Amino acid sequence: MTDQQVVTRFAPSPTGFLHIGGARTALFNWLYARGRGGKFLLRIEDTDRARSTPEATQAILDGLAWLGLDHDGDAVSQAEGAARHAEVAHQMLTAGTAYKCFATQDEIAAFRETAKAEGRSTLFRSPWRDADPSSHPDDPFVVRIKAPQTGETIVADKVQGNVTVRNDQLDDMVILRSDGTPTYMLAVVVDDHDMGVTHVIRGDDHLVNAARQMLVYNAMGWDIPVWAHIPLIHGPDGKKLSKRHGALGVEEYRAMGYPIEGLRNYLTRLGWSHGDDEVFTTAQALDWFDLDGIGKAPARFDFKKLENVSGQHIAMMDDAALLHEIQGFLKATGAPALTDAQSTGISNALYCLKDRAKTLPQLIEKGHFVLTKRPIEPDAAALKALNTVSRGILAELTPHLRTANWSRNALEEAVAAVAETHETKLGKLAGPIRAALAGRSVSPSVFDMMLVLGRDETLARLADATE
Fold first, then answer.
1. Please, how many CA atoms are within 13 Å of residue 54, restricted to the half-sphere of its CB?
2. Is residue 259 assigned to a domain?
3. Is the pLDDT of residue 145 over 80?
4. Which one in 101, 161, 239, 424 has a CA-CA gap of 20 to 30 Å to 201?
């Protein structure tokens, strides 16, 4: 398989949103394939017709698109392949690697009760396994695979190592139901084979399925893919990630304003490592990612680490890319789009907004001064800084700024001179200036705001505040 093109797949069930754990599985598959010039395929496992919805399918597609995990070709519907799955089951019947089982549910239950009472394995052993086909009555039947009953099956897993299963623990699993519909265990194998999947990278909750699915591969004489069963994601308390830990769906992380590159970085690092590297680009992840770096222990989701990685990506990001992220975030959350003037303003301000913002909402809040219009309405905290004394000092500062060369040094000197006149520190004047320019008690440096706003707008806002 070494000279074969790598083909991976992501195969979610469309019964809800794209879970953050599913997103990481998709990401691992995408990184492994894309980093090797291979194919990354998408299959929607929609055989549960009662629970599968078009809305859930769309949510999965939207989540993958937002994360930038592009797939090759169209998404495959598992339900649409039912006839092909059944065809394989009939080929196995003809080859003698599967058989018709006429046992009723009552007979199976009675078998298990007797076995339990006698202290034997309750794994159902069908009396039809070696029955003469001509003796089969004209009754409903299921098709069961003939599992080996002695020896061992070894699942050679790239993450878990060799996992040995005793064959006497494997039942003759049903591959075709009595109504002629295929079971999930058959459909998965047929689809993976037909799609040319070379590497099955999925959650380790599927590890128990691998040995059973190998029965189908072996019965059909098909190549078994490379298995890589990755540990699940746990919450900070070490228990399986659930709603009590917070956000579960990818769309929730989008709404919280984590930049795509930052979330991709964090999810890649969740259960996989490359030395001590914590913060890296997607290009580096594509270059570095390998199955050897995946740990066996469950990874713990840590919001503080996610915020830290997110903040570092915001600081690293190219201004044009960051503006695009901001616009995408506003659209996704239903907030008003930026006007042309706001886009220009925020672009000019990004140099002083990037540092210390962990998320896009934090960055937008820091950029409030350039997104808002006169007259500025100070919030409660900012209003406290605008008392009679401070307004008088701002009025005194205005002529100094009007004649200043509009550079950082000149602005600092002008403010420092007024502060000295009033025998106060420069920092003491920052509060009222901030309140006048931004209407907030927390903002970028007052000198950065002046430079971004320009002379006329700065003087106009100060004049408004002193009236």
1. 0
2. no
3. yes
4. 239
Would 365 be classed as within a structural domain?
Answer: no
Of 353, 364, 354, nearest to 327 by C-alpha is 364
What is the rounded distance in angstroms from the CA atom of residue 71 to the CA atom of residue 253? 21
Q: Give the whole-angstrom CA distance, residue 410 versus residue 392.
A: 21
Q: Which of 195, 230, 265 is the last residue of a domain?
A: 230
Count of all residues that appear for the chain in the document: 467
Look at the block and give the residue holding tokens 């409660």.
Answer: 380
What is the C-alpha to C-alpha distance for residues 213 and 193, in angstroms, rounded to an integer?
Answer: 11
Give the C-alpha separation, 444 to 354, whole Å: 10
CA angle 300, 301, 307 (to 5 degrees): 140
Could you read off the pLDDT of 149-201 as tens digits, one per residue?
999 999 999 999 999 999 999 999 999 999 999 999 999 999 999 999 999 99
Domain that holds residue 424: 380-466
C-alpha angle with apex 397: 392 to 398, nearest 5 degrees?
A: 100
- CA–CA dist 162, 288 (Å, integer): 24
Please tell me whether residue 131 adopts helix, strand or coil conformation.
Answer: coil
Q: What's the whole-number mean pLDDT along residues 263-291?
A: 96
Domains of the chain: total: 2
The tokens of 429 are what? 């004047």
**Which residues participate in the annotated binding site?**
243
At 220 the pLDDT is 98
Q: Tell me which of 209, 230, 251 is where a domain ends.
A: 230
In contact, 170 and 147? CB cutoff 8 Å: yes
Q: The CATH number of the domain where 127 resides is what? A: 3.40.50.620
Among candidate residues 146, 243, 296, 373, the one labeled active-site is 243
d(CA 304, CA 453): 33
Beta strand 39-44 with 76-77 is parallel
Task: Calculate the dihedral angle through the C-alpha atoms of 183, 184, 185, 190, rounding to the nearest 10 degrees.
Answer: 90
Question: Among 384, 415, 388, 398, which residue's Cα sits nearest to residue 455?
Answer: 398
Band (pLDDT 50/70/90 cuts) for residue 1 is very low
Within 8 A by CB and 6+ apart from 185, the residues are: 173, 175, 209, 212, 213, 216
Any domain includes 18: no
Mean pLDDT of 334-360: 95
Residues placed in the known binding site for ATP: 243
Place of tokens 């830290």: 308
- pTM of structure: 0.92
- Could you confirm whether 425 is annotated as catalytic? no
User: Taken in order 176, 179, 180, 183, is the CA torsion positive or negative?
Assistant: negative
Q: Is residue 405 part of a domain?
A: yes
Q: Domain with 428 in it: what CATH number? A: 1.10.10.350
Strand partners, 164: 154
CA dihedral 111, 117, 119, 121 (to 10 degrees): 20
